[in-house]
Request: fold
Amino acid sequence: MGSRIKQKALMERAERVIPGGMYGHESTLLLPPEFPQFFKRALGARIWDADENSYIDYMCAYGPNLLGYRQAGVEAAAEAQRLLGDTMTGPSEIMVELAEAFVGMVTHADWAMFCKNGGDATSMAMVLARAHTGRKTILCAKGAYHGAAPWCTPRTSGILDSDRAHIAYYEYNDAQSLFDAFKAHDGDVAAVFATPFRHEVFEDQALAQIEFARAARQHCDETGALLVVDDVRAGFRVARDCSWMHLGIEPDLSCWGKCFANGYPISALLGSNKARDAARSIFVTGSFWFSAVPMAAAIETLRTIRETPYLETLVANGDALRAGLDGQSKRHGIELKQTGPSQMPQIFFADDPDFRIGYAWAAACLNGGAYFHPYHNMFLSAAHTLEDVEETLEATDKAFDAVLRNFSMLQPHPVLMQLSRG
Amino acid sequence: MGSRIKQKALMERAERVIPGGMYGHESTLLLPPEFPQFFKRALGARIWDADENSYIDYMCAYGPNLLGYRQAGVEAAAEAQRLLGDTMTGPSEIMVELAEAFVGMVTHADWAMFCKNGGDATSMAMVLARAHTGRKTILCAKGAYHGAAPWCTPRTSGILDSDRAHIAYYEYNDAQSLFDAFKAHDGDVAAVFATPFRHEVFEDQALAQIEFARAARQHCDETGALLVVDDVRAGFRVARDCSWMHLGIEPDLSCWGKCFANGYPISALLGSNKARDAARSIFVTGSFWFSAVPMAAAIETLRTIRETPYLETLVANGDALRAGLDGQSKRHGIELKQTGPSQMPQIFFADDPDFRIGYAWAAACLNGGAYFHPYHNMFLSAAHTLEDVEETLEATDKAFDAVLRNFSMLQPHPVLMQLSRG
Reply:
């Protein structure tokens, strides 16, 4: 394990000027104590922490890094626009080009609106669906993450019942449950939200079943509700189109974010003509929604998505990692649960109810130079190579050894235990 | 008037792939038809539209441009960070430096949380105040803009009563009205939101009266509610501290955005120790909230704010513009209403109830190379020079002539009339 001297000093300083030392999804509060909170730099598939320890990074900034950190083509496109202008008194002319390119790639889409956070796009979809239908109820899958706005944030401190008065829940992949939710809110369902597959923290991932996706489309068609696919997390890591196209299902709205400008801040709501009038009627905006540099980065990222085998690379390397881990776990006699698309892996240990094995393994992987997450789904980028995967598998093999060696001494994470008790 | 050939083609293309051709605060739907929707580039105090017509820009991207477009020091700081990394798997170590610098400049603040949109900061303040107090009611000034989230967006298409079930309203600058609102929600007020002065669209601006600010502080202290100053629009254009410090009033929370990274996308919520535990308890986050490049730009922008006379430059040039316009209007015998701080001017014509004079004047200014807004408060940047102001005044003088020449033929804006009827 490398030095942690700068990390320690930074965390002490952060504790004074940032509540809890950090907040949000990049806080390391729930991670093993070995995990660095602060990073110095990133390149390709690698990140370096404040003490210059380097890791092959399987989080990809929680998604945004699709093509590799500081990918040359995207950086050049962004730089060219930066020399012209970024945040101006109106949008750049390239906003039109971006909307045309995006709409041209996503089958269901006739129009696009750009914003900053993924949650901007999902909140817009909610408001738009209510404007379109004149109804109130939004159906979401239980436990699904659609952002951190009051209507959807997973932690309810400061959240009122009224913030969620018209949000109702169904079980993902359960057509009957969705049908029951429609019945319970008969005539008032404005929209069904669905992620393209289940990808919740601390849970095995689950691909969408076609019967469920078809039922969602059918109930929406029969009632006039809008079908919303929240592709913020999975977009362009499953398909070069909306992720449900592989099931043959076209939503009315799709939400995009994270990776379509390879790390530059931009998100989007795409919609069909059916929803256009409602889209015109709502007022949504933000200080930086029209900034041009992220749009230039997005145009180049979308081009790379269309014209290169980035997706096949993600899948091939994800498959190689999954197969390698599978073999190692069998050799070590420890059962792994590897779920979801291999390019967005979720890895848990069987018989690990309080996650102590998984946490110890992730900490050991980290010390071996591979940044794996013990409770959140992970991401591969097109910059990950087969050599990176092989180097990673050396670290994971040693991590299996370490876990077995220390098995009887493993303890659950104290903050995690506190939360699960609370 | 310059060419509008590219604009016209762009707007036709935009109409197909962007609902209504554009959305949000940078849509030109409510502006005179001469106003360009799309821009090619920006530098210093100037912007160029898609047809390469150039304007001295008094909107500054609706605020973000504080020091001048592409200001060299900020661009260099951003570039240095870009070569290290931007959106990574964790925040950069410079996030701590930024929090320390910001907290060191804002008297009331003990901690900082960074986000993307100004509305992220105001929504966080709302949730935080409810977490802190265990109460529901948020008091906002009637008509005040705090963002485009369901609880505060100015247009109510798609918005439910429940979204605003616990938002109540008082009259800005009216201590009695604020007191009455506290009484009406006795024991349930979580926070009072106030902009540092009145800066609504289509309204004269009004500075905060000290009695009102003191009453807000006093009612909050007596009831335990939090006082929130929404400095997103006015921050660092009134003071090098929270804008209410000149009144001697420290809020518990302040919301910041737009200009503190000179156009790079970042916003912030700052708070006092009183609110720290609640800040730790809420879950708020976004895909790009931890990106490092806007933080590097912010560190350099804050340094410039501390160490240069940028603010005195804004005020001097704002005063010169105001005095020049005042003289011109008197000479032309047309009464102007120039309100608010001169560096954030709002300019209306007296006896112009449907804004037809102001719209015609703004259109004539635009044709003369000065981008003035006919209904939104404007902004000066530190890149505006006295020579720019003099050049602007030549354009405005001709605009007064043009308005007088065509006075009897002026018509109100058709979309504006439609909205005011609706």
In short: The two ends of chain A are 33 Å apart (CA to CA). The mean pLDDT of chain A is 97. The first helix of chain A runs from residue 5 to 17.
